[in-house]
């Protein structure tokens, strides 16, 4: 059965923009985040406190957070890989942070310069201090279907990492097909391995759309009871540590699907598409959203 409502988690300003080679000015990021919140999104991931040597585009996250108009009821989470990142997040007054793990050792090494076990040794004090300070902590898992360096990833490996994130106190675990290769049968096998350990009402799905399978995977996940979907306005993005991977599934496309299914989200498609069109114009390319392009040509 399909959920009656879905929480859309907008990751464009972080997952989308982190991969842009040219620096995007803080003012443009701020306008994007505010426009997304105005469109009705209740979660707008707004940056990350990671090493600026690793991801230079996110180096101005503190400035961005200082400039946005925080709307009541809207959450503006940021990624933090370690205590240093968490301390920066505290200074910026965030209410939610996300820690990010991988289901494959090679990706953990490339993305965070450590093994999966080492990453959990870092996350444990981050989660503990964040929770003690009253923040909410979300957990991400990369490579839930396949790894760009190792190939297919076993569902049991994903389940183990999900269980570890939940044990640290993550209220939700977002399952990321980082390189966008999965098809519904693989996604369902993965969800069926994870759900006995972390219940489906604590799971989110996070699809990159490299092979055009994201909407099919989302529909399959909704039918399994998942009710939280990550997406990126205008399909922005890619991953700096997953060569060739495209952006996340476009938020406008996800919203069109959900609207068509009668699933409520609280998001306005015209305002969302307008926000996507503005950032695409800034980046000098057409929107990566099929729905946004169709709406613009009407
Ligand atoms: P490291 O080099 O092993 O760290 O990187 P280190 O502790 O040895 O520190 C090295 C330098 O980085 C030092 O500076 C630190 O101060 C600095 P130096 O003394 O050389 O001048 N540093 C920091 N600076 C600012 N903020 C920090 C921070 N930490 C250290 N928090 C580290 C390890 C984890 C820091 C690094 O690998 C890193 O920053 N990785 C982040 C990679 C990243 O952001 N990837 C993208 C996000 S994940 C993703 O996109 C996937 C997802 O969307 C789901 C999916 O699709 O799969 C979530
Ligand atoms: Mg991602």
How does this structure look, described?
The chain is α/β, with parallel strands linked by helices and 298 residues long. 42% of the residues lie in helices and 14% in strands. The chain has twelve helices and eleven strands. Strand 7 (146-147) and strand 8 form a beta hairpin. Helix 2 packs antiparallel against helix 11 (269-283), helix 7 (155-167) crosses helix 8 and helix 8 (184-194) crosses helix 9. It is globular. The two termini are 33 Å apart. It binds 3-hydroxy-3-methylglutaryl-coenzyme A (HMG) and magnesium ion. Residues 15, 18, 48-51, 53-55, 79, 81-82, 84-85, 100, 111-113, 140, 142, 176, 178, 206, 208, 239 line the site of 3-hydroxy-3-methylglutaryl-coenzyme A. 3-hydroxy-3-methylglutaryl-coenzyme A binds next to helix 4, helix 5 and strand 6. Its EC number is 4.1.3.4. GO terms for molecular function: hydroxymethylglutaryl-CoA lyase activity; metal ion binding. InterPro entries: Aldolase_TIM, HMG_CoA_lyase_AS, HMGL, PYR_CT. One of its GO terms (biological process) is ketone body biosynthetic process.
State the shape.
globular
- Average pLDDT: 96
How many β strands by DSSP? 11
- Report the sheet with the most strands, covering strand number, pairing sense and barrel closure: 9 strands, parallel
Distance between the termini: 33 Å
Strand content range = 5-15%
Structural class: alpha/beta
- Please write the string of helix (H) and strand (E) elements: EHHEEHEHEHHEEEHEHEHEHHH
C-alpha-based Rg, rounded: 17 Å
Strand order of the largest sheet: 2-1-11-10-9-6-5-4-3
Hetero groups: 3-hydroxy-3-methylglutaryl-coenzyme A, magnesium ion
């Amino acid at each position: 059965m399909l959920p009656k409502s879905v929480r859309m988690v907008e990751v464009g300003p972080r997952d989308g923009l982190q991969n842009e080679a040219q620096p995007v000015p803080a003012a443009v990021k701020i306008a994007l985040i505010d426009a997304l919140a105005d469109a009705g999104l209740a979660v707008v991931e707004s940056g990350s406190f990671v090493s600026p040597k690793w991801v230079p585009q996110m180096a101005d996250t503190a400035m961005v957070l200082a400039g946005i108009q925080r709307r009541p009821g809207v959450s503006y989470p940021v990624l933090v890989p370690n205590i240093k990142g968490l301390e920066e997040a505290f200074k910026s007054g965030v209410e939610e942070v996300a820690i990010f793990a991988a289901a494959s050792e090679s990706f953990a090494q490339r993305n965070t310069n450590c093994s999966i076990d080492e990453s959990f040794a870092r996350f444990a004090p981050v989660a503990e201090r964040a929770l003690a300070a009253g923040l909410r902590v979300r957990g991400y898992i990369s490579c839930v279907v396949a790894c760009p360096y190792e190939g297919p990833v076993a569902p049991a490996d994903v389940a183990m990492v999900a269980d570890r994130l939940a044990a640290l106190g993550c209220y939700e675990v977002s399952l990321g097909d980082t390189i966008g290769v999965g098809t519904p049968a693989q996604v369902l096998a993965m969800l069926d391995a994870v759900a006995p350990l972390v219940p489906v009402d604590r799971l989110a799905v996070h699809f990159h759309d490299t092979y055009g399978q994201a909407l099919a995977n989302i529909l399959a996940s909704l039918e399994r009871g998942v009710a939280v979907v990550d997406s990126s306005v205008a399909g922005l993005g890619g991953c700096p540590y997953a060569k060739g991977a495209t952006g996340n599934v476009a938020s406008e496309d996800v919203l069109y699907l959900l609207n068509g299914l009668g699933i409520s989200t609280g998001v306005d498609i015209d305002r969302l598409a307008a926000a996507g069109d503005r950032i695409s114009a800034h980046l000098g390319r057409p929107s990566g959203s099929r729905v946004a392009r169709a709406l613009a040509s009407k």
